[in-house]
Amino acid sequence: MRLADIVVPDTQAARGALEVATAYCTSALLNHSVRAYLWAAAYGAMNDIAFDAELLYVASMLHDIGLVEEFDSHTVPFEEAGGHVAWVFAAGAGWPVERRVRAAEVVVRHVWDEVDPAKDPEGYLLELSTALDISGRRPEDFPAELRAEVLGTYPRAGIGPYFTMCILDQARRKPDSQAGRLARSGIAELMAANPLEG
Predict the structure, then answer these.
(1) Whole-angstrom distance, CA of residue 52 vs CA of residue 34
(2) pTM of this prediction?
(3) Least packed by Cβ within 10 Å: which of 20, 40, 112, 194?
(4) 11-55, pLDDT tens digit by residue?
(5) 148 φ/ψ angles, rounded to the nearest 5 degrees
(6) How buried is residue 112: exposed, middle or buried, by Cβ count under 10 Å (0-12/13-18/19+)?
(7) Residue 53 to residue 7: CA distance in whole angstroms
C-alpha cells in the first residue's frame, strides 16, 4: 500500500468538507484530518473492510471541527458538537436524513474506546486512524513506506502540542466529557511519546 493507492473521493460533498476544514482548521488540525482519512482508508483497503469512502472522508474532515473556536460548544463535548456540524453539513449537501445521521455518528464515535466494524465500519476506521495519529497506537499496522509518504506530504505541523492544548481546555470546561477522561488518562504524555512525531 502506497499513498497513490489510496482512493480519495472526488464528489461535491467531499470537496465541500475539505473546503470547510481548510477554512476553519489550523494547518496542524487540517493535516491531521487529512491523515485521519488516509490512515483509515488505507487500513480498510489493506484489511478488506468495505466502507463508504465519501462518508468516511466527510467525517474525517469534520471530526475535530468542534475544537475550533467558531464551533466550540460550552454545553456539549467537542465530538458531539462536531457531530451536529456534520449533520448540518450533510443536510446542505443534500444527503438523506439517514446519511446525515451516519455522518454525525461517525464523528461522535471517533473518540470511543472501541467501535464494532461490523456495525459501523466508517466509525471503526476513523477511531482507529485518529488513535494512530494522536496517540501513536498500532503504527506497525501500516507499512513504513506509507507512513513516510503520508507524513512527508501532510506534515504533523505541531499537532501534538496543539491537540494537547485543545483537549486540556475541553477537559477543564467539560470535566465529565471524553476529553476530560483523555486528559486524566495522560493524553499529553501519549502524544509526546507518539512514534509518528519522530
Answers:
(1) 16
(2) 0.94
(3) 112
(4) 999 999 999 999 999 999 999 999 999 999 999 999 999 999 999
(5) -65, -40
(6) middle
(7) 8
The C-alpha cell 486524566 sits at 184
- Alpha-carbon distance of 134 to 79, in angstroms, equals 15
Q: Which three cell numbers stand for residue 148?
A: 513516510
In tens, the pLDDT along 135-164 reads: 889 999 999 999 999 999 999 999 999 999
Q: Which residue, 2, 28, 21, is CA-closest to 146?
A: 2
Residue 95 cell numbers, joined: 444527503
State which amino acid sits at residue 151. Answer: L
CA-CA distance, 51 to 123, in Å (whole number)? 10
C-alpha cell at 64: 475535530
